[in-house]
Amino acid sequence: MTAFFDRVAARYDRAFAPTAADTAADLAPPLVGRTGVALDLGCGTGRAFPHLRAAGLRVIGLDASRPMLLEAARRASAREVARVRADLYARWPLRDRSIDVLLAFHSVLAHPPGDPERAWRHVGDEMRRVARAGALVVVDLPEPSWAATYLRAVGPDRFLHEAGGVAIEAVIPAPSRVLAALGLPLSLGEGPLGARAIGEL
Ligand SMILES: C[S@@+](CC[C@H](N)C(=O)[O-])C[C@H]1O[C@@H](n2cnc3c(N)ncnc32)[C@H](O)[C@@H]1O
């Protein structure tokens, strides 16, 4: 998984500029009134960091790609944002009940290893484990129609994202399927890539 993101890290922000430009307007509403620690899962280049900090939250960015985390260091120093290199689909190196806001922006959950349902269930379990009571969860869930516009369809729910001589497979089914596997009390609404799941734990 990381080979693809390692390779695209340096130009990720330019490639995703249209999405990034809307970030502030996109993130501000769900964060109103939230305090404490935000965990930005699959934080990438730290696109969300300034907005989370501006909302008064302390921020932890978690990502498996070292080059992405290095890019994220340009957005915020280690003193401002803690960066953690970890795999979403293994146990997260975070304490139980330590997080107030859990975020997964863009298609962070699109690359599950092995059985997708099992992988997403693990993410849901970890979210529940690290969340403090009442924690906010915001997860972007791309629609297959969004994926079909930007990626090459290679099978049912499967798309290929090719860039810079590397490719990664994305598993993008109907958002309700990912939501069911997460097993969290989230509601589906509209999101930048199709759907966004929001709720409190
Ligand atoms: C499409 S980018 C989104 C980055 C950022 N959230 C944003 O909105 O700009 C997906 C990010 O998820 C990370 N990622 C994907 N699978 C992961 C995994 N299994 N563990 C940790 N990070 C992962 C990638 O390294 C990449 O930085």
Q: What would your notes on this structure say?
A:
The chain has helices at 2-8, 12-15, 17-21, 23-31, 49-54, 66-75, 116-130, 144-150, 175-182, and strands spanning 37-41, 58-63, 81-85, 99-104, 131-142, 152-155, 158-163, 166-171, 187-191, 194-200. By secondary structure, the chain is α/β, with parallel strands linked by helices. The two termini are 29 Å apart. Helices cover 35% and strands 31% of the residues. The strands form two sheets. Strands 3-2-1-4-5-10-9 form a seven-stranded mixed β-sheet. A three-stranded antiparallel β-sheet has the order 6-7-8, covered by helices on one side. The chain has a single domain, classed as Rossmann fold. Helix 7 crosses helix 9 (175-182). A hairpin with a 2-residue loop joins strand 9 and strand 10. The structure holds S-adenosylmethionine.
Q: What is the level 1 CATH name?
A: Alpha Beta
Number of helices: 9
Bound ligands: S-adenosylmethionine
Helix content: 25-40%
Rg estimate, integer Å: 16 Å
Please name the CATH architecture. Answer: 3-Layer(aba) Sandwich
SSE order in H/E notation? Answer: HHHHEHEHEEHEHEEEHEE
Please, what is the CATH homologous superfamily? Vaccinia Virus protein VP39
Count of DSSP strands: 10
In the residues, how many domains can be counted? 1
